[in-house]
Amino acid sequence: METERTPLISIVVPLYKEAANLRGFLSEVTGELSKTGFRFELMCVDDGSPDETWNILSEEARTFPNLRAVRLSRNFGKELALCAGLEHARGDAVIVMDGDGQHPPALLPEMVRLWQTTKVDVVEAVKTKRGPESFSGRIGALFFYVVLNKLAGVNLKGVSDFKLMNRRAVDAWLQMEERNVFFRGMTAWLGFTRVQIPFEVSRRAGGQTGWSFPNRLKLALTGISAFSSLPLQFVTIAGLLFFAFSIVFGLYTLVLQLAGRSVSGFATVILLLLIIGSLLMLSLGIIGEYLARIYEEVKGRPRYVIASSIEPQDSTP
Length: 317
Description:
Elements: E1 8-15, H1 22-34, E2 39-46, H2 53-60, E3 67-72, H3 78-88, E4 93-96, H4 108-118, E5 122-129, H5 135-152, E6 159-166, H6 167-174, H7 183-190, E7 194-200, H8 213-227, H9 230-258, H10 266-299, E8 306-310
Parallel strand pairs: 1-2, 1-4, 2-3, 5-7
Antiparallel strand pairs: 3-8, 4-6, 5-6
């Protein structure tokens, strides 16, 4: 009688300049996954790190037989590195987590247990505390989540990239082939049954974060433009409002002219020109943002390019 195959768990970890804490991270993740009793693989993606990240992965592959890795030809960004990891992961369940230690490996056995006992498609870790962060970072994140919720109806407050997805959810995610990727929002859009597990964001184990303000702003614009077209409708609404205002103001001016009390005031004209000009520039900016997204999609370029890879001797899933 043929025994049932033990499920395979894949851990997808995008890495960028994580050489300082990578060895300890791999050891800790391997130790926690060993507690589950399942087969597992570590699918690491080096997102064009300029430090020793790839060299350390190559060395550690001799110690960890379950380690697989790909190195991207340059820095494509975390979201596209996640795409590479998900496309190469072979597991019956795939866990996505950061390699900087802020997603606690100690939570892995509990996530696997919940997946097995509840039979849900997604086990997502929700932040109860965001961890050490600047005031501007907290305000910016809050503003982004509020705007995204109002525009697209997607509530991502507290949701992180740290989540387990079964093979059905992963395959459905991979069917979305857009190049402007927002992993967190796309996973929420898919739906599927899910259960949440709380966690506190830890301090970075070492090194410095690669998430600068421009990177965060770019991701926010991608998330908003990928999930809502309401900003384009704002242009139409603003145009209609200004058209109505111009009719009212025109009639008011005509009445004053007929009454012999014509409107005068250089400041008023300049103010109106500034308001209208600002609205036009803002409208063009919004339209340009969506045109840029369309342009990137229709070019049809690959989302990432792999420069090299590491496969264990026995690569059978």
